[in-house]
User: Fold this.
Amino acid sequence: MAKVLITGGTGLIGRALCKLLLAQKVEVVVLSTQWTVSHKNPKLQYVYWNPKERFIDPDFTIEGVGIINLAGAGVAEKRWTPNRKQEIMDSRTQSLQTLYDAICSGQIQATNMVSASAIGYYAESDRLLHEEDAPDNSFLSSTCSLWEKEAVRFRALGIPTAIARVGIVLSKEGGALQEFLKPLRLGIAGIPGNGKQIMSWIHIEDIARMFLYLLETPSNETFNAVADNPASANALFDAILHMKRGLKIPIPKIALELALGEMSIEILKSAQVSNQKIRHHGFQCQYPTIERAIQNLLQ
Assistant:
């Protein structure tokens, strides 16, 4: 892979992907909503775009590039007001629509694409969930369905487009793990609800490697981007407390509902998602268990 174009390249996964690609001497172009971004790597280029306006800097063109689409407003960054929910949905669909227009006009000539989705696609279930399982009518599920529908349109242009439904990404650079660690500054590990809900997670290094793997093995398939072994919230915090001192304290469901509103549904939802398909496709996680992942991240 000689050239890769990334949307959402300044986010948690995007930063890890840029680091991985640049280490392999791959030329990386990041579509950014900032006009100028300072950096010193000659293999890295930032190009201005504004998906709300369907705009990409008209002076920019590129050929023979693989696309990794990660763009979208952070789901857990703000309370889900009606306006925020619309922003979360629009940011995902408008980004893909802008890429689609750029490809149709010839501004971007793509070889293939990998587009992010999320395991929020799935309904709560006590059984193992696979790619062919149906979504439900929740906000995140509806968002993921529209997100994927926009990505699938690229296949009709002759561009192989894989979809990766990303689980809870664990990283020491931000995201869910940092939120879990914050109360530990006070010696407290706040367990959401009863802690029995299953969380389908993935180590930051594995998700970056998985996106690159899917880009290097083009397909028109959908894959669950999670680790081999989903874990309960209790198991996750046990792994954290093996590395950090603290006392486990349950956070009642009603407290989460008051603090987070509708978002609390996702925090308390149990979703045991299988990565069997990507493993059979040939990808192997370096961190298949929660214990190994947390040890690596917190050692």
